[in-house]
Amino acid sequence: MEITLKIWRQGSQESKKAKGAFETYKLNDIQEDMSFLEMLDVLNEKLLHEGFEPVAFSHDCREGICGSCGVVINGRAHGPLKGITTCQLHMRHLKKFTTLVIEPWRAKAFPVIKDLVVDRSAFDRILQAGGYISVNTGGVPDANSILIGKHIADEAFVAASCIGCGACVAACPNASANLFVSAKISHLALLPQGQPEKHHRVESILKAMDKEGFGNCSNAGACEYECPKGITLKNIAKLNREYFEAVFSASLEEHPTHAHHGKGDESMHVGH
Amino acid sequence: MSYQIKNYKNSLRWLTDAVSLSTGKKYLMGFTGFFLIMFLMVHLFGNMLLLKHDGGLAFNAYSKSLLTNVLIRVIEIFLFAGFILHIIFGITVSIQNKNARGKQYAVKSNITSSFFSRHMIETGSFILIFLLIHLKTFFYAHRIMDSNLTMYESVVMAFQNIYYTGFYVFIMILLSFHLMHGFQSAFQSFGLNHNKYSPLIKIIGLFYAVVVPGLFALIPFYIYMEKITLQ
Fold first, then answer.
1. What are the residues whose beta carbons fall under 8 Å from the beta carbon of B54, sequence distance 6 or more?
2. Cα-based distances in Å from A96 to A25, A32, A34, A99, A226
3. Cβ–Cβ of A75/B109 closer than 8 Å?
4. Contact flag A215-B101 (C-beta cutoff 8 Å)
5. Domain-embedded: residue B112
6. How confident is the model at residue B42, as a pLDDT?
7. I need a labelling partner for B198 at 20 to 30 A (CA). Which of A40, A60, A131, B164 fits?
8. Are strands A3-9 and A99-103 parallel, antiparallel or unpaired?
């Protein structure tokens, strides 16, 4: 199949191309069973052969679980299909388009590093602010020493399936990170292991989120629509409830500036 | 941030801190929005008296009772506060949200979110302009200035102006758009999202968004028709 690509090209901050612009490429020999990323690989081979700089894009596992790949294709985060990441998109899915406009995630909090690659370390800093539980080191606890209802475990598992790709931010009309944050809040607040720190967590994680410059959630629902892992707005509702509870019923010591967690060697953070 | 409250001057500190975070602002938008939704219904009940075929007798009596009731004076303060907070926070979050995107997408998708949810600030801004005109025509003339006209005469006079009526109906359509998202969105903001009751909230929200502005917009037509039949 033949395809015209309009790809956002942008150099690093210091370079001449720091402002960025679209460049148009034509590919004639694309097979419809190629994945979208393989199509970009073909383009990059061609560019290298012709002596041009290849298009920079993020990718790692190429099986939809790492959350590295992610571009906006014709206005849709991860392309027009629901429930998949960019790497799971194949050219046969894009047959109805003759032109593909490929853009990086657009958010102030996700600055472009180069071309289609954005810096998503804002997500890491949000998780550092509260996406963990504090436990004492020691022997491995017995698997069934804490009983968790099946439906709660399932719900927590669904929330934990967030891969942090950032499509929610990219799709949100306000570039809000609420869906990402709510997945983490729900996951940890549902489980007994996460409950001791839940008041402190929701406040410090929201503070970190606002500090990064993400927008406010306006319940538009574009995040839920585009999430490749099916994280729903119910998680954001849960985040709101958790915040309400923290504001009205957390003890003074539980608020972020009063909390003194993780002191001494006996405690370690278990990451997400 | 200190929550050790030593004097009453700082007794609202926890609340101002809470609404300084984005989720707090969201609660405030939902809370004031829902309060204004309830007000709309009360306002509509009053306006429905205009549909009584009595030359404005019932409507004038009702508006007079509002002007003289102490309880209404108190509620009025909360109503103004609700409007002002909803407007200020609405504008604030909209500016923050515009800034959070940075560079706009070259291609935008319209199917991932509803038209209504994406244009709350635009519909809201028009409603604000209408609110100011509305307050000048009715609130300022009767509550502040003590007009010679009865409230019914004021209403009839305003609606005799085709532009005023046209703008009124136009705003009711925008109000409907605003409520299409606003009603159900308030519940989501309160954290009320559940398979049990969310479908019902959405149905009630759509019904409310169509019926309430629809009935408001019906009144100028009725008055116009009544005038023709009386002549």
1. none
2. 18, 12, 16, 9, 20
3. yes
4. yes
5. no
6. 95
7. A131
8. parallel
